[in-house]
Automatic annotation (TrEMBL):
Its EC number is 2.4.2.31. Keywords: Disulfide bond, Glycosyltransferase, NAD, NADP, Nucleotidyltransferase, Signal, Transferase. The lineage of its organism: Eukaryota, Metazoa, Chordata, Craniata, Vertebrata. The keyword Disulfide bond applies. It comes from Oryzias latipes (Japanese rice fish). It comes from the Eukaryota. Belongs to the Arg-specific ADP-ribosyltransferase family. This is NAD(P)(+)--arginine ADP-ribosyltransferase.
Length: 246
């Protein structure tokens, strides 16, 4: 699933991509997109350095979590849809790279720890996915608050209760210390390349006490899938890393 995702992990080309972002992509993308430039500049004035993440990585997280600008929505629309146009039509190379880099650094820091995260949505999804492998295929926000918790119910008005997810993520990271909203949503951000097995599906039609109409339980396979890994530096667009999706 999500085969057209811009799912670059930059495995083996981190330094080359960093140079390309610093020398070309970031300024070009800010010049082409006034909203992105304003959001990036605001984040640069607001964030402070830590010992873990670089300044651009901190700025990228702040930009992504700034719901007022909706840059996250613009980014994820392109991440979901523009895999085949990654080289020519994708407009968020800088943000994608620094978010991915930040998540990988935070993943190393947690030394193999996996999180249980929860996600609410207003969308409907196929229920013919039990025991199958899926990806979200974009940067996926989730919360550490269980679906039944009072904090999660507070989020329901913004995020919905049609389809919800209980997610074991091993590549996702806790970005709440670096978020614009800090600990308000206790956010775990999941990268596009993480693969999950759907281990359970429950519906409110059969279980009245469910907090959502449908609840999917996902377990990380602990194997990523990156169809476009380092594709900017290769003549062929397709490059598989890790697990191939069903």
């Amino acid at each position: 699933m999500a085969d057209n995702s811009v799912d670059d992990m930059y495995e083996g080309c981190e330094d080359k991509m960093y140079q390309k972002v610093e020398k070309e992509f970031l300024e070009n993308e800010k010049n082409k997109n006034e909203k992105f430039r304003a959001a990036w500049n605001e984040a640069e004035m607001t964030t402070s350095l830590t010992t873990i993440l670089s300044r651009p990585e901190l700025v990228a997280i702040y930009v992504y979590t700034n719901a007022l600008t909706k840059i996250y929505s613009d980014l994820n629309k392109e991440v979901r849809e523009l895999g085949t146009k990654y080289k020519t039509g994708f407009n968020f190379h800088s943000l994608h790279y620094f978010l991915t880099s930040a998540l990988k650094k935070l993943d190393k820091k947690k030394e193999g720890k996996c999180y249980t995260a929860y996600r609410r949505t207003t969308a409907s999804f196929s229920q013919d996915v039990l025991n199958k492998e899926i990806r979200f295929g974009y940067f996926t926000s989730s919360s550490q608050y269980p679906l039944e918790s009072s904090q999660s119910k507070e989020l329901e008005k913004d995020f919905g209760n049609k389809s919800c997810f209980v997610i074991e993520t091993c590549f996702g990271a806790d970005i709440s210390p670096y978020s614009k909203f800090r600990d308000e949503e206790a956010e775990i951000l999941i990268p596009p390349y993480e693969v999950f097995e759907v281990t359970n599906i429950e519906t409110i039609a059969k279980k009245k006490e469910l907090p959502c109409e449908v609840v999917y339980t996902l377990k990380s396979t602990k194997k990523p899938f990156s169809n476009y890994n380092c594709a900017l530096f290769k003549s062929s667009m397709a490059s598989c890393v890790g697990h191939i999706l069903l």
